[in-house]
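User:
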Amino acid sequence: MIVRALSVWATPTAGSVGRGPSSLSRMAPSPGNILILGLAKTGSTGLYNSVKASLAESGHDYYAMFEPTRADQLHNLHAYAPELPLLTKVMIAREPDLQLRYDLFDKRVTLLRDPRDMIVSFLLFRPFIRADVSWEQVEPFVDAIRDKERDPSAHSVHSLHLLADQLRLASYRLDRVVEFMEWQEALIDRHGLFVVRYEDFIAGRLEAVTDYLGFDVDNVASASPWLDHILRSAGSGDWRHWFTEDDVAVYRPHVTRYMKRFDYDHEWRLAETPRINPVTASEYIEGKYRRRHAQQQLRRTGLALDVDARAQRERLQDLADDGNSQAMYRLAKTVGGAGDPAPTFRLAHRAAVQGHKPAMRLLAELYQQGRGTQVDAERAAFWAALGAGQDRSRGRRRRLFGRRDP
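Assistant: Predicted structure:
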């Protein structure tokens, strides 16, 4: 069953999650802040979606943030909203720049995947990563994939990656990938990350992560159009059909140590009769490219969506549900006339605590007027000053928001 995460439109009440007060009073305690760390194409987005949906189903009101790109996003949340439990998914490639406060995360999870499947999966994902890639660049790549579907020996995976480089698709440097794999190993050792295998996740073997997190986690598909491009084959061992002997020679020396460390079967036998399904190859790329490209363009234009159009409004909601502060702010500005000011306050507050200055100014007005919250002149003054770019003292911040101050 696909369960949609608690929408930022909803007021955090029992009714918003379909449970009465008595059931909420018996709800298990919040598991605290949850961090999911992932290498590219290891299933971390799928696990994030599953955890987010499971939290909403259990009645826990979480702040979900998908792949933050700046350190201040998380630091501001810790500083200005320590009472809001946080679920975030972070790419290991960005982890050094985010200056994560691991001590503020009660649960820390990372995912492993057979690196050979990762190499194939990332190959087919390269056309979607950048917003400025034209179809003219992608089409020769798709033609080469079709050649490989007809004859799996026609191209090695390595040669297809080189072709993608020539076509200026998103960068893929094997040495960097290996560096990130080694960094993941260091993070596991340094911060005691709980390890989930991609192969277990897609097979629904989630008992261990359920025990670790303290609530039931179901393997669910993404309900968000923004994230529905992530899932491709939902399988493992595909590399045996994609790799050639040349690929074995190229990739084996680079991934052997990682595979041994995490007990992946170090056996490189290729499929005797390799078959590549167009549904998860060329048709996957063609079917996803245009929609993904359009979505990327929307983000580049500042989410210039028509909030009166249902489909576009729902897209804004999906982005807001995953922590996009601009989407939260735009929705906050549009729901104010609906009668109930609580959704406006909720949205403005969640955008403001991430560092969105227009949302800070809106939040100051709401505190000043008592719309969606009680009148609070001190908080109104604080957010007005912060929204105007004026620094506030750390002592005052701690007095207003608590001790979790980076």
